[in-house]
Design goal:
266 residues, alpha/beta, two-stranded parallel sheet, hydrolase, Acid phosphatase, Phosphoesterase, phosphoric ester hydrolase activity, Alkaline_phosphatase_core_sf
Length: 266
């Protein structure tokens, strides 16, 4: 799905509705969103650039293929499930008004995602730090579990030995950060998790059944938490001091429709 685009609108600029070479047919299998809705667990997906995309003026770094609910029939525009999909700007509005759901997914705009070609590392990290700061300064902080994930690896060092690899995986390890009053202070958790540990953590917290064998076998992120530790220190901690970020870099040459020279004529 990372190389296909959702059939549901809004789509990535330049993609033609119904084009089978670039659009994935609408999906109907059960999702964690379906399970939370059935169990009356409030949730919302905050999508970077969604409002502008709906208005027909998408940001150049809007990423439709990163908006998971848009791949599914239950969350298409005009359906009851569409209420679970909002622009990322609504996250801070909901947080400030006390209307943040029990589970929030924030998929930031490409300009803030640390990815080469969209922005720079510092700009993306400062965006994330600002979100965490806003949560820390809000009433929800005392009960919050913030999980920050990356979809790619970027280094060579790892704190656990490589696991045996078979035909189906596991794949490349990626970083994750846990921020919470209940997070173990200054601890690197050596437990082997996987991406669907996101699902198993939600399922464990709210008593939901696993969607399949994969999340049933995935450890929730409880190894990084200690519910018996005093949280007064975490509650009193001041938010991070964020300095001014540099402007994003210019668009890479390859994203202008041109490509680097590989051969020179005699």
């Amino acid at each position: 799905m990372n190389t296909m685009f959702p059939y549901n609108y809004p789509q990535t600029p330049g993609k033609t509705p119904g084009d089978p070479t670039s659009l994935l047919p609408v999906q109907t299998f059960k999702t964690i969103g379906d399970e939370m809705t059935a169990a009356s667990v409030s949730w919302k997906w905050y999508a970077g650039g969604l409002n502008n995309a709906h208005a027909g003026t998408p940001d150049s770094t809007y990423q439709a293929h990163h908006q998971a609910p848009l791949f599914f029939a239950n969350y298409a525009p005009g359906t009851p499930g569409a209420q679970h999909v909002a622009d990322e700007s609504a996250f801070l509005t909901d947080l400030a008004s006390g209307n943040l759901p029990a589970v929030s997914f924030v998929k930031n705009l490409g300009a803030n995602n640390e990815h080469p070609g969209y922005t720079n590392l510092l700009t993306g990290q400062m965006y994330t730090a600002n979100l965490v700061n806003q949560i820390m300064m809000s009433p929800v902080w005392k009960d919050a579990l913030v999980m920050i994930f990356y979809d790619e690896a970027g280094g060579h060092y790892d704190h656990v030995p490589p696991v045996p690899v078979d035909r189906w995986g596991p794949s490349t390890r990626v970083p994750a950060l846990i921020v919470s009053p209940w997070a173990q202070h200054g601890v690197v958790d050596h437990t082997n998790y996987e991406v669907v540990s996101i699902l198993s953590t939600i399922e464990a917290r709210f008593g939901l059944a696993p969607l399949g064998s994969r999340d049933a076998a995935a450890a929730p992120f409880y190894g990084a938490l200690n519910f018996n530790q005093p949280v007064a220190q975490a509650m009193a901690r001041r938010p991070l001091n964020i300095e001014q970020a540099p402007p994003p870099p210019p668009k890479p040459f390859s994203r202008t429709g041109h490509y680097p020279v590989t051969e020179l004529d005699d």
